[in-house]
Design a protein that fits this description.
Length: 506
Amino acid sequence: MTPTLRALLCLGLSVGLRTPVQAGTVPKPTIRAEPGPVVPYGSPVTIWCQGTPGAEEYRLDKEGSPEPWRREKPLEPAEKVMFYFPQMTEYDAGRYRCYCYSPGGWSERSEPLELVVLSGSYSKPSLSALPSPVVTSGKNVTLRCGSWPLFGKFILTKEGDHRLSKTLNSPHSSGQSKALFSVGPVTASDRWTFRCYGCSRNSPQVCSPFSDPLELLVPGESGKPSLLTQQGPIVASGQSLTLQCRSDIGYDRFPQDGPFQAHFPLDTVSSSHGGRYRCYGGYNLSSEWSAPSDPLDILVAGWLRERPSLLVHPGPRVSSGENVTLLCQSQRPRDTFLLSKEGAADPPLRLNSMHRAQNQAEFSMSPVTSAHGGTYRCYSSRSTSPFLLSPPSEPLELLVSVPKWNLNILIGVSVALFLLLSLLLSLLLLRHQRQSKGRTSDAAMKDPQPGESVELDPRAAPDAPQDVTYAHLNPSTLKRKTCAPSSSPSEEPLDEPSVYAALAIH
């Protein structure tokens, strides 16, 4: 081989070794955010970029910003690096991609990561279930996320699942924006807790805080609890209210004040608190809930301005057995009236107005008893808002007296019962005494007197058992010993006839 050819071959090899590898031949890395892609304002977040082993440099790009956004060179070749954000702001929100450089060249860019900041400059939306959060197992339900700020989109998240469900919506003419999500089929084998948030139309990665959590209830067949309130079903606007859920079963899926009850404070009562409530009980290890409690209606008084008046016919003092009518009237048109008794556990009586021109309702009690006595108040409401009431009427006290002839009968019956009870007790006592005397007479026996001697006679009495020895009592041999002062005891014969006495020897 000539020197010229040898030089050309070496040059060709050298040129071939220095030819750069084209970008994109190295596999693209993966990108993720920790603890998650949705970050509250001011909270830290870490973006991890994982590439190929031996990578010498990593770069992070943000969509719409000069490239590279950030770069990291590990001290030693590594297959992943972290990009740390100590405090998340609106400036950090956006879509990110990462890529790395290795001896093989530059990798492809990763899939995009959307980093969302929940800004406190927006109010959180509301999340509700249509028609109800109580869903039969295997059925679907519609969740409504809505807010008064006009967001460009809403995102629904499920607890324990970071996958996002998104929907775009257009503002309504009322100025409220909303999105409807279809969820299901719902089963009792999983927890169904959701939150939603809305994002700005101009900055899609700048969003509102999370809504309050909404948990779907899958009722089962276990024992239903009871729901009650210590304040009663009628609560004045502005008053505090607490609902109590009780059960004979030790459920643990409601906030625990004890193993069988929970308290739900509703804080200051407003018109939004009026409605029909039920409660459920469940277990932490299961998504199945109990059967619902019986409904409890919470009525908010003071919402309507007009105060009705309450009258009684024939009067506030009546006798037991009479007919009484309580008349509730309003000066303004009202189609519904309610009558409440102070201290009664039952819900108030509700009647529609019988005479719209007079705006009144008649509550009849026929016949009255002593149980009807008490203090009454009445309220008015509209059928379109059945849980919002007027202020109460002035209290009316109904006094029910018992007639004298009824009182005499009651006294006579009481005396007769007392005499009958006394007679029965006397008979029982007499019977007990007779039984005691009989037992004492049967148990009495004639014992030998002190000092008497008994001679055993081997003769057996007629029909006597073989294991019994009889003693023959002979007056000539039985002596009664008597003691006299300063003399020896004397013996006197007994004059009684001969008898047989059995002495059982075991």
